[in-house]
Design a protein that fits this description.
The complex is a heterodimer. Chain A is α/β, with parallel strands linked by helices. In chain A, 24% of the residues lie in helices and 31% in strands. The C terminus of chain B is likely disordered. Classes of the chains: A alpha/beta, B alpha/beta. At the A-B interface, helix 3 and strand 15 of A face helix 9, strand 16 and helix 16 of B.
Chain lengths: 365, 1061
């Protein structure tokens, strides 16, 4: 059994066992409180550039099944758990968690006090960190953690966005998905509703998107600091009023940026499957899956034409936006779930309803 | 919508006596809900017949009615109180059924009382099998193929068409009473007949058996605006086929993928919405272990045992939230008191919770230990760890089943075949049988296949067994560290190292291995939490910060079991309150999720931990208390006094030396001889030969009991030499270490006192008298307080003996003693230097805080300081209280029904009235005896008691009761010229089964012998729930009650809280 270490920039060093690939990896250390859905967490591209700590201590209890993956491979920089199950017995869990981590080269640590880590990050804010296997000099690791570049200075979307467009054919309306780190769950939800889903890289220009004759456009989730995506935001702005727009997570922030509002970094983000979101006006609450480190600055929304449709019940941050006149809306949480509650799948239906006039106009067919 | 302004007064219905399937969890949820309502300024009126509850305290509700939970009596309360609302979802199935009946009778409409929470339509949709099925079909949720049968023939026809094993469940019953699994026409007929008889609406559901499927539960909360959340999900380690109350349960589920979990969660939300639940609801599913196929199994539209467990497992106060929803709040308007954030979220756990049931088979040796769809456990424990093994091993040591972790000494000697049988057929020892087989090298895959347990769980057991193996070779600090992280106790390591627990503890300390404490915070560390609810684990960071304010530790009583029930939780909670009033921080250690004492805001700190020496010592080392209170947590806590004392922990109250004298037969006899206090002659024996010699000296009959046990396990009155040989042999087999006590059995009136002493002064709250003569366990006898017609010289002599003991033992705290008055002489039977089972009963009748006074004394105050100088008798109460035992015999097939020195009741009720007869009447009614009798009184009396029974028979005949008598009894009646009908045992048993008999008086000749017709008659009565009285005194009391049946007055609320001087 190989030893492994996690060192944070503030000097905290945890020693445990390596349960993934050998080597060293660095990134922003974040935690999620989702109790199930580790395969989905591992393959959520929004974790690119980050080392993910699972708050729930027993991970890997049902193995990993490739179909449950949310993208073509794991993009996270490391995985930290209290206990990783070395076996799998689940009918659909074809390989064990350690096997999966090794196969995909994910550096991973087990046997550490993950609750201590969660409390540390919650109270002191997220930290940069280094995960390394084999014998290590702790102070040297801390030094290396301090040298890790801040996530707001890296174009992580570049890493996760697909090199070329691809299409999931379907009989219904054509939806272009701007992939900034798309969770396949979003594409699957659209596809399951009969859409033809055209996934394009995030650098696509408005003109290229229009050339695809879309009935609607979805702005995907994705990693990193949204403020680095001003170029993408400009293209989005150019399409308002031309096609209905639905943003998810990073897509919500892109919408705000496009309207001239700004975003800010949350102290330790929202990551889990249990976040309550209140719909403004109706008083209805939905339990949502969240994975974001940044939020839309509500004050900056004044005179942008966007209004707040949802708020987080815990901290009141913006969880949904809607344009006052145009068929443009977005949510900060994940209606596709995976992992997490399926309470918000109706949002895809709501988006599809807005596509109907365009279909009748016959603009695309 | 905030709270409804139109609700000023709400009546809350409690759950009545503890029976299998309905235990302390409803005191916990009821108490929490009442406090939540009181917070809103709502006047709370409570009706409950169970005196041993916190919910019936004057501090919990504005007015409390300790009245029978019958429609008639609750209607009278509603009439007197005229509330706007009735809350019936907190008192289990009893309260829900009562509410349904009150609605059906038109009482609610007539009085303009609104049923709060889930509307009746939803309750009926959930409870009525056919309606539930129809509803599920309408919303597209799969239910197993099933049919409702009103006759056994219908059940058989359906099962044959299905060609599968079927499960049979009666409608509207507790804990699946009377149900079961069956395959083949004969078995189906038998189980269906039993189920139909047990169901108040005469219906059973027959459905496809899903044995072996995963059983998964969701606890859901929903408000009137349709906001719906799941608080917790749980997975049964024992798959479908074993009642969830009898299953090992883990929270959250561990073997479900997110897809499966979300599929079932979404289904649970759909179901709860379709039922229009307003409050809490429990939904149970069966999930195919090899696909995503599932079935909806059951829904409980109320607080339940599972919701109590879910509350303790997550920290989320479900009852409180349900109560707030019932008075109008929306979920997001309710605060989560743990984080002070919103209650409208789903708790995230960063630990694993395991629940283990506690079964009563130690008391019911003759009963069938196999587990099925009929719940048999009386209580449960919960344990929290960071991993499954840690939580499981903590639970295993919490349950006090005589095991060392996963090692069961009795199973170690059994051959493989027997262990395989116990693995394949679910029984109480299955977990230990599986571990033993793994220890012997059994193939885990085969074990999983034959036990139907998910291979994941078998794999986890294997991890423990492999570690056990490693430890046998390896005594390094690494190995010990790994053992502690996996969850092994010092005692388990000591077994493997063949040394003592103390030795392991010393070595562990030398290695620097100590546990850390983590918080249960509902949010997996995401937000700061303000409530001090901790569990131990071996990790890096310890979150329990040092608190310099002085504290005392109160030990709870662990799982609810026969002879150690909810009464001890009542005392624990009151001790906590008294400590806080005395200015000390109160620290509670307990492991029972059903209790009030383990609610998050009762104590200053709650350690949800096993009540083992190791775990309690760790808490003590953490908290540095001024001392530990061991007198409130029953025998569990008292048994820890010695080891804690030896480890240097101060024990508050009566010294450990005195406790030891009171529990050691020889030392105690010597003391009594010195004090000149007589007790029935007898002694301690270690063999059949010694027993024979003793009997030659003291004579027969004798009372035989092993020492140091709860509630007189294996205890009985023995009338013959042959029986004595048999009983002593059996008792010695239970525990060779300890002698068997054999005492002359002296018939007479039995008295009991819950006194408080400080070594000098003595507080006597009054005298209890048992209705049944000595020889019936005090926990099973009807008890009258204050004792009627007690001669002053007897009272004087009893007081004198108490004061002698108080001084000699330097008592500081409770002094419970039982006496028998035999031929005008007072004999001491038993002394307990701890709070007894009757403390809540006496406290409630008097309206006097006994526990508060005792706690002050334990902390060092003298009774004189507290205003009770010398030998102080409390003034007699204004009313008479009668405590009646309640049994769960119908849930334990094959168990003896007759009363004896071995305690068998699971719960108790109280009858309170200005007159004894009225109190008796209410106590019988509350215990489920329908008065006036609904048919003839059947007499079947052992030859020994026949002469005495004539007086009873004559009185009954004079009262106009129709009498039936079996052969021998009939002859005696005939000779005495008492009119009756002579019946055969078969005829009597048939009438009982058909419920055409009003009550049975069946005094056994031998007892415990299923081949005798009397035994079968008693079993039939228990199963048909026809009152069965096995002592003539109880029957006499029944006649007393019958005489006043028409004259019992309007219910009166109990006295308010009495201030302590």
């Amino acid at each position: 059994m190989t030893e492994a270490y996690l060192a944070l920039e503030d000097g905290l060093v945890l020693r445990g066992r390596s349960v993934g690939a050998e080597g060293e990896s660095s990134g922003e250390v974040v935690f999620t409180t989702s109790m199930t859905g580790y395969p989905e967490v591992l393959t959520d591209p929004s974790y690119a550039g980050q080392i993910v700590v699972m708050a729930f201590p027993m991970v890997g209890t049902y193995g990993v099944e490739p179909f449950w993956q949310e993208s073509r491979r794991p993009f996270l920089r490391g995985f930290v758990v209290r206990h990783a199950s070395p076996h799998t017995w689940h009918w659909a869990g074809r390989i064990t968690l350690p096997e999966y981590l090794q196969r995909w080269g994910v550096v991973a640590l087990e046997g550490v006090d993950t609750r201590q880590l969660v409390r540390h990050l919650r109270s002191g804010g997220l930290k940069r960190g280094v995960l390394a296997t084999g014998p290590q000099e702790p102070q040297a690791l801390v030094q290396r953690a301090r040298a890790v570049s801040d996530l707001s200075c890296v174009d992580v979307v570049e890493e996760v966005s697909p090199p070329a467009p691809f299409t999931l054919p379907g009989p219904g309306p054509r939806v272009v998905v701007v992939d900034c780190g798309l969770k396949l769950g979003i594409a699957r939800e659209l596809h399951a509703r009969g859409c033809e889903v055209v996934v394009i890289p995030h650098r696509a220009r408005a003109a290229e998107i229009l050339a695809l004759n879309p009935h609607g456009m979805v702005l995907s989730n994705g990693p990193g600091d949204p403020a680095r995506l001003q170029a993408t935001a400009r293209e989005v702005r150019a399409l308002w009023g031309v096609v209905p727009v639905f943003g998810v997570c990073l897509g919500n922030q892109l919408l705000a940026l496009a309207a001239g509002a700004c975003t800010f970094k949350l102290p330790f983000g929202h990551r889990g499957s249990n976040h309550p979101v209140l719909e403004v006006g109706s008083g209805r609450v939905r339990i949502t899956t969240q994975n974001h480190g940044y939020a839309v600055d509500e004050a900056s929304l004044a005179d942008t034409g966007l209004r707040v449709t949802h708020r987080n019940l815990h901290d009141g941050t913006v969880e949904g936006l809607e344009h006052e006149q145009l068929p443009v809306f977005a949510v900060q949480f994940h209606p596709e779930a995976r992992p997490g509650p399926r309470d918000s799948r109706d949002l895809f239906d709501r988006f599809l309803e807005r596509l109907q006039p365009a279909t009748r106009a016959g603009g695309a067919m | 919508m905030p709270r409804r302004p139109d609700l000023h007064k709400v009546v809350v219905i409690g759950s009545g006596p503890i029976v299998i399937g309905q235990a302390a969890e409803f005191d916990y949820s009821g108490t929490q809900a009442c406090r939540a309502l009181a917070e809103e300024g709502i006047e709370v009126v409570l009706v409950n017949s169970n005196p041993a509850t916190i919910m019936t305290d004057p501090e919990t509700a504005d007015r409390v009615y300790l009245e029978p939970l019958t429609a008639e009596s609750v209607a009278r309360v509603l009439e007197a109180e005229r509330p706007q609302g009735l809350l019936a979802t907190l008192g289990g199935q009893v309260a829900l059924n009562l509410a349904a009946e009150l609605a059906r009778l038109g009482v609610l409409d007539r009085l303009g009382v609104e049923l709060l929470g889930t509307p009746l339509r939803g309750i009926h949709d959930a409870e009525d099998r056919q309606r539930f099925r129809d509803l599920m079909t309408r919303i597209g949720e799969p239910v197993p193929e099933s049919a409702v049968a009103s006759s056994p023939e219908e059940a058989v026809a359906f099962a044959q068409a299905l060609a599968s094993e079927v499960v049979i469940r009666p409608a509207f019953t507790l804990g699946g009473t009377g149900g079961g699994l069956a395959e083949g026409p004969e078995a189906v007929y038998k189980v269906a007949a039993r189920g139909i008889a047990a169901s108040p609406i005469g219906q059973v559901l027959v459905e496809r058996s899903l044995r072996g499927w995963k059983e998964v539960e969701y606890e859901v909360a929903r408000d009137t605006d349709d906001n719906t959340i799941t608080v917790c999900n749980m997975e049964n380690v024992d798959p479908m086929g074993v009642h969830t109350g009898d299953s090992i349960v883990v929270a959250p589920s561990l073997t479900l993928s997110d897809r499966e979990h979300q599929m079932l969660r979404s289904a649970a939300l759909r179901i709860v919405r379709a039922l229009d639940v307003r409050g809490a609801c429990n939904v149970q599913f069966a999930l195919d272990p090899a696909s995503e196929r599932y079935y909806v199994i059951e829904v409980n539209p109320r607080l339940s045992r599972s919701s109590a467990l879910a509350s303790k497992a997550t920290g989320y106060p479900i009852a409180r939230v349900a109560a707030k929803i019932a008075v109008g709040y929306r979920l997001w308007e309710i605060q989560n008191p743990i984080t002070r954030g919103t209650a409208c979220f789903e708790p995230a756990l960063d630990y694993v919770v395991v629940k283990l049931p506690r079964w009563p088979f130690d008391k019911f040796g003759e009963s069938d230990r196999r587990l099925g769809t009929q719940m048999k456990s009386t209580g449960e424990v919960m344990a929290i760890g960071r991993t499954f093994t840690e939580a499981l091993l903590k639970a295993a040591r919490s349950v006090e089943a005589g095991t060392v972790g996963l090692y069961h000494p009795r199973l170690g000697a059994l051959p493989d075949e027997v262990l395989w049988v116990r693995t394949q057929t679910p029984c109480d020892e299955r977990l230990w049988a599986m571990a033993e087989l793994l220890r012997r090298g059994a193939d885990p895959a085969e074990l999983s296949r034959r036990s139907l347990a998910d291979p994941f769980f078998v794999g986890e057991l294997l991890r423990v067994v492999e570690l056990e193996r490693r430890l046998q070779q390896d005594r390094s600090s690494e190995a010990l560290g790994e053992a502690k992280r996996v969850g092994l106790s010092d005692a388990e390591v000591a077994r493997l190292w063949q040394t003592t627990e103390e030795d392991v503890r010393a070595r562990r300390r030398a290695f620097g291995l100590r546990p850390t404490y983590k918080l249960v915070d509902t949010c997996a560390g995401e937000f700061p939490a303000v409530t001090p609810y901790y569990y131990s684990t071996y990790e890096e960071e310890d979150e329990a910060e040092e608190d310099p304010r002085p504290c005392a530790v109160v030990l709870g009583s662990g799982p609810i079991r026969i002879a150690q029930g909810i009464e001890f939780d009542y005392s624990t909670v009151h001790a906590v309150r008294s400590l806080r009033e005395a200015g000390l921080r109160a620290v509670v250690v307990n492991c029972n999720p059903e209790t009030v004492s383990t609610d998050f805001d009762i104590s200053d700190r709650l350690y949800f931990e096993p009540l083992s020496v190791e775990d309690v010592l760790h808490v003590v080392e953490k908290e540095h208390p001024v001392g530990v209170l061991v007198q409130f947590g029953g025998q569990t806590a008292l048994n820890l006094a010695g080891p804690l004392h030896r480890a240097g922990v101060p024990i508050l109250g009566t010294s450990v030396e005195s406790l030891d004298v009171s529990e050691d037969r020889e030392k105690f006899d010597a003391l009594l001889a010195q004090l000149g206090v007589p007790r029935p002659p007898g002694g301690a024996v270690r063999s059949v030969e010694e027993a024979r010699a003793l009997v030659l000296r003291v004579g027969l009959p004798v009372l035989v009991r092993p020492s140091y046990v709860l509630g007189g396990r294996a205890m009985r009155v023995v009338y013959s030499q042959e029986e004595l040989d048999r009983v002593v042999r059996a008792a010695v087999a239970v525990d060779l270490q300890r002698p068997v006590l054999v005492d002359r059995y002296l018939p007479g009136v039995e008295l009991e006192v819950d006194a408080i002493g400080d070594g000098v002064n003595l507080l006597v709250p009054g005298f209890m008298q048992h209705v049944e003569r000595a020889g019936v366990h005090s926990g099973d006898s009807m008890t009258v307080f204050p004792a009627p017609h007690l001669p002053p010289e007897v009272a004087g002599r009893v007081t004198e003996i108490l004061q002698l003991l108080n001084r000699a033992l330097q008592v500081r705290g409770f002094l419970n003693a039982q006496f028998v008055v035999h031929q005008y002489r007072v004999y001491l039977l038993e002394v307990n230097l701890r709070a007894s089972r009757t403390v809540p009963f006496v406290s409630k009748v008097l309206g006097f805080p006994l526990v508060q006074v005792a706690t002050r004394v334990m902390l060092g105050a003298s009774l004189e300081d507290l205003g009770f100088p010398g030998v102080y008798h409390l003034p007699a109460p204004r009313q008479v209280g009668v405590k009646a035992p309640v049994f769960s015999h119908e849930k334990l097939p094959g168990s003896e029904v007759a009363l004896g020195p071995e305690m068998r009741s699971t719960g108790e009720v109280i009858g309170l009235d200005r007159h004894l007869a009225g109190a008796l009447y209410k106590a019988f009614m509350a215990a489920g005896v329908r008065l006036p009798l609904q048919g003839p009184l059947v007499l079947s009396v052992a030859p020994r008691h026949r002469r005495e029974s004539l007086r009873l028979a004559r009185r009954a005949a004079d009262m106009g009761l129709q009498l039936w008598a079996t052969a021998g009894t009939s002859e005696a009646l005939q000779r005495a010229g008492i009119p009756h009908r002579r019946v055969s045992y078969e005829e009597a048993t048939e009438a009982v089964r058909a419920r055409s008999a009003g009550a049975v008086v069946c005094v056994p000749t031998a007892g415990h012998d299923p081949s005798r017709p009397g035994f079968r008659l008693r079993r039939a009565a228990a199963e048909a729930r026809v009152p069965c009285l096995t002592c003539l005194e109880t029957a006499w009391a029944l006649l007393d009650a019958l005489e006043v049946a028409d004259a019992v007055g309007v219910p009166q609320p109990t006295a308010g809280p009495a201030a302590l001087g």
